[in-house]
Amino acid sequence: MWSDTHVPATLKIDGNQYTIALAFRGNVIRKHKKKSYRIVFQKPNIVNGAHEIHLNAEFNDPSLSRNKLSLDFFHQIGVKAPSSKHVLLYINGTCNGIYLELESFDQYLLQKRNWADGPIIYATNYYANFSLVTPENKLKSRLNDGYTIKYGTKSDLAHLEQFIVMINTAKNEEFSEKISNFLDIDQYLKWLAGVVCTQNFDGFIHNYALYRDRDLNRYEITPWDYDGTWGRDLHGNHLDHDFIPVTGYNTLTGRLLHFQDFKKKYRKIMTDILENDFSVDHLKETISAHLQSIIPYLHLDPYITLNEEKMRKEEEFIFQFIQKRNKYLKENLIVVQ
Q1: Sheet containing 16-25: order of strands
Q2: Which InterPro entries did the record assign (predicted)?
């Protein structure tokens, strides 16, 4: 179950048949009976604009929807993010349950969305904290620890290393002058607000990808794997609404929010999002409609014990989280001054 080796398979979607390569994906989920999968199209090589898709089991999420709700929320606030939709997966004629189909953030997605070409680097473990040291405060053996090239070359990884060096060694005046040469600051602060609102504990040092638009030569950051959000952690356990501070954390964020101009930008972005996007009034209809669309299929999933009553309780749990989180963030924005 820990192998990443692909095996040949056939995939049928709405009556159409495709030759694919199939592998397990994820980490914690591999210990459960309901696995997650990575699918790479072989014949044809591209299907609906994608060369690769992911099928996430969402096994520990009692709503099966936190990942999708999060990615949709990032879309809403203006942050690039993969699209997703729920599907029923059958393996050799037997229903394997409800899965979340996710776009792969890769060069094919750039083409599909008409975004500029550029390297994509995944944060593949929690060493991807924009720092010279690990979260355990030990010196990293390599500057690019925690990062893996999804699309690009070794020179793109070297560029990222230069960025990390600048973040950690530049004096304040130099940092403020150079940071906009490396980073789309407004986009980063919108992403930061999205992580803070949805409260993804791993989102600041993991669960993201870096995309560098070759035309502008600046990094944008995009979310990935957001099942541990909206009041629960990645194991499905309750996470208090005030667990993550309004400023979030990682070395890059810490340096940015040292400067008054960037603090002011972040405060305005967060204030606008709390007023116009991250509220029960704004999100209730969309969330309710989405969860309602899943309920008729719950009984087909052999790995879960969800029913309509439990889903309704989880829906209310999410609304309560949004309400409490919104209030907490508004009250604590005073520190961003």
Answers
A1: 7-13, 16-25, 36-43, 52-56, 94-103, 84-91
A2: Spore_coat_CotH_CotH2/3/7
Q: Is 254 helix (H, G, I), strand (E, B) or coil?
A: helix
Identify the DSSP state of 107: H
What 3-state DSSP class applies to 285?
Answer: helix
CA distance 231 to 251: 25
One digit per residue, the tens of pLDDT, for the chain of length 337 reads: 888 899 999 999 998 999 999 999 877 777 778 999 999 999 999 999 999 999 999 999 999 999 999 999 999 999 999 999 999 999 999 999 999 999 999 999 999 999 999 999 999 999 999 999 998 999 999 999 999 999 999 999 999 999 999 999 999 999 999 999 999 999 999 999 999 999 999 999 989 999 999 899 999 999 999 999 999 998 999 999 999 999 999 999 999 999 999 999 999 999 999 999 999 999 999 999 999 999 999 999 999 999 999 999 999 999 999 999 999 999 999 888 7
**Collapsed DSSP state (helix, strand, coil) of residue 331:** helix
- Residue 176, Cβ density class (10 Å: 0-12 exposed, 13-18 middle, ≥19 buried): middle
Angstrom distance (rounded) from CA 51 to CA 225:
19
Q: State how far the alpha carbon of 106 is from the alpha carbons of 15, 58, 252, in Å.
A: 27, 22, 24
* Beta carbons of 131 and 139 less than 8 angstroms apart: no
Closest by CA position to 9, among listed 91, 88, 89: 91
Locate the DSSP E strands across 57-130: 84-91, 94-103, 120-123
d(CA 84, CA 86): 7
Q: How far is CA 101 from CA 32, 38, 246, 336, in A?
A: 19, 10, 31, 37
Quote the CA–CA distance of 156 and 132 in Å, as a whole number.
18
The number of CA neighbours under 13 Å toward the Cβ of 240 is 5
Contacts of 222 (CB under 8 A, 6+ apart): 74, 79, 80, 81, 82, 105, 191, 208, 209, 210, 211
How many of the other CB atoms lie within 10 Å of CB of 166?
Answer: 17
